[in-house]
Amino acid sequence: MNRSRQKRKGRKEHKGTGHTQKVAEDICAEEILRADTLVLGAGASGLTAGITAAERSSVIIADGNDRAGRKLAVTGNGRCNFTNAYCGEEGYNGCGDGFVSSVLNAFSVEDTLEFFSEAGLMTRLEEGGRYYPYSGQAVSLIRVLTREAQRRGCRMMLGDRAVSAEGKNSR
Question: pTM for the whole thing?
């Protein structure tokens, strides 16, 4: 991160969304270096990666946006279709080497629905097998992911863009 301290603190209401989220606490460069895992990006993938990594390591999730899930909030016209009942390898372009099937088998649609249900998200199945938050608002999914990341001990560092990242086990 190009700043040694994160300046945003406390709770912040994001205009027009009714979305309030805890914004990152002061995180200094030394704390970043001590973290086992640094996830760059607090979108759906970054939050999910942080949640998963927190099962076995200390995690900081960093994002250049001022709030987690900012881009996610506009997916599906703000409704956020987060999985599909008919998810299969045939729905993806690829080399046909079985990679897509291995990913889908590792964490199935049923696993996805169970994860979100246990985290407190009510869902709705619509035409074409599309699943949405029951509220019809992407912000519900963002709240669940953010709350689950924080519950598992992930720390958020928002509003600072990463210029580069290196580490002893960098990937």
Answer: 0.78
